[in-house]
Design a protein that fits this description.
Structural class: alpha+beta
Helix content: 25-40%
Order of helices and strands: EEEEEHEEEHEHEHEEEHEHEEHHHEHEHH
Strand content: 25-35%
Number of helices: 12
Number of strands: 18
Largest sheet: 5 strands, mixed
């Protein structure tokens, strides 16, 4: 299911949460050593192909602001590799950066992947990581890693539910006795919310904004469930009518309306899983509720929204952004976890 045999664990081994929006790297014995956007800026060479200009935070600043000879690319889409060459360059950079830029390091690596990943998509990750410098590449399904990172008792004979809302995918799974009982990988998550906010503002106000601006709107005033505070933010973009720059103010109620389709898709997926699991697991979840992880868990009041729909307790992991990387890292640190996950 998740991991092949691993013989020998070394301090330089890495666990990687290769996300659509951000990549996190966990180093055995050190914890999280890198957390950067999954973005690469490429410069077109004069007949010599493309050259990597920047990776991570520096590259993200270039999104939507590059001249013709520079392209800022996000090589991950919906949780899987969309651009093999760029993903390889990005992984190589992150692996070297995690090891203080030493080029001869070839670590063993565990990479978190969506539970719904195909064999073709898995092979792309395997080949990219291998070409980027990983000596061995193993996989752990993201909902399992997120559950471990969030501290759920996955080895017990009781049901635990994890909802991991990332940038490209939302992973919903029920786990028991060290395995996944049932799961759905939904390719609706933070990125789709950003796109919906951009389309909403374009449709309602005829103002074109970038995805980075839409993401800022979401993380600043986004609110999944109404409360007493109506927050506002100024948004700048290009007026579709006049073609000139323009600013306007939108509120959190409008943002909630813009992302309602994605919120309903996530809650609907949780309900689907609840309808499919055996009644014994339903009884467990009635007591313990569900756990939220991933960057999407930071959306204000998303726990209240899900609670209002699902009628179960909803908890948020202590550090939802790092749950997958930490869970995969614990598999590196603890041979008992590894042996329990092997199949």
């Amino acid at each position: 299911m998740i991991l092949h045999s691993i013989s020998g664990i070394f301090s330089r081994d890495l666990a990687i949460d290769l996300g659509t929006a951000n990549t996190l790297v966990y180093m055995k014995g050190k914890g999280i050593v890198l957390n950067e956007p999954s973005v690469v800026a490429m410069k077109n060479g004069n007949g010599n192909g493309k050259k990597v200009l920047a990776v991570g935070k520096e590259a993200k600043l270039m999104l939507g602001r590059t001249p013709e000879n520079i392209t800022a690319i996000r090589p991950m889409m919906d949780g899987v590799i969309a651009d093999f060459e760029v993903a390889e360059a990005m992984l190589g950079y992150f692996i070297r950066k995690a090891h203080a830029r030493r080029r001869l390091v070839r670590p063993r690596t565990i990479i978190g992947v969506p539970s719904g990943i195909t064999q073709v998509e898995k092979r792309a990750v395997l080949e990219s990581a291998g070409s980027a410098g990983a000596r061995e590449v193993h996989f752990i399904e993201e909902p399992m890693a997120a559950a471990i990172g969030a501290g759920l008792p996955i080895s017990e004979p009781k049901g635990s539910m994890i909802v991991d809302i990332g940038g490209g995918t939302t992973e919903v799974a029920v786990l028991s006795l060290g395995g996944i009982v049932d799961s759905i990988s939904l390719r609706v998550a933070g990125d789709k919310m950003d796109e919906s906010i951009r389309e909403y503002i374009k449709r309602k106000y005829r103002l074109v904004i970038g995805l980075s601006t839409a993401e800022t709107v979401k993380t600043t005033i986004g609110n999944a469930y109404p409360d007493e505070n109506l927050e506002r933010i100024d948004v700048k973009g290009r007026d579709l009518t006049t073609g000139v720059p323009k600013a306007l103010t939108i509120d959190s109620g409008e943002v909630r309306e813009a992302i309602s389709e994605q919120l309903n898709a996530i809650s609907g997926t949780v309900l689907t899983i609840l309808e499919r699991i055996p009644p014994e697991f339903a009884a467990d979840l009635l007591d313990k509720g569900i756990m939220l992880a991933g960057g999407g868990a930071l959306l204000k009041n998303i726990d209240l929204f899900l609670r209002s729909v699902i009628k179960l307790p909803v908890n948020i992991a202590e550090d939802p952004m790092t749950a997958v990387a930490i869970g995969a890292g614990k598999a590196l640190d603890d041979l008992k976890i590894l042996s329990g996950l092997e199949k």
